[in-house]
């Protein structure tokens, strides 16, 4: 997650963000257990562009709301996925979900 967050900046390609997350798993020897995207845009649909997938030429712009949701799934053992939502800004990405919730 942290590797991807560092790249949530205007002008970065979604492929770069995906690759940064994938490389963390690869360096740890778990890349074969990372079978899907690393995240996507959030808006009117549950999943919409931009998509953090291999080869994506989607480019981040200020004002985009995205989720990063890397997950590892080991057959016969189980899996885990984490998801955080962000607003892409000219500065640092702004986390727009928080757990635990302050109610």
How many helical elements?
2
Largest sheet: 5 strands, antiparallel
Low-pLDDT windows of residues: none
Strand order of the largest sheet: 2-1-3-6-7
What is the CATH architecture descriptor?
A: Alpha-Beta Complex
Rg, Cα atoms, Å: 14 Å
Q: In the CATH scheme, what's the topology name?
A: Creatine Amidinohydrolase
Helix and strand pattern: HHEEEEEEE
Please tell me what the overall shape is: globular
- Strand percentage: 25-35%
Alpha-carbon distance between the termini? 25 Å
Task: Domain count, please report it.
Answer: 1
What structural class is derived from the secondary structure elements? alpha+beta
Q: What is the subunit arrangement here?
A: single chain
| Helix content, binned percent | 10-25%
> What number is the mean pLDDT?
92
CATH level 1 class label:
Alpha Beta
CATH-defined superfamily: Creatinase/methionine aminopeptidase superfamily
Strand runs, count: 7
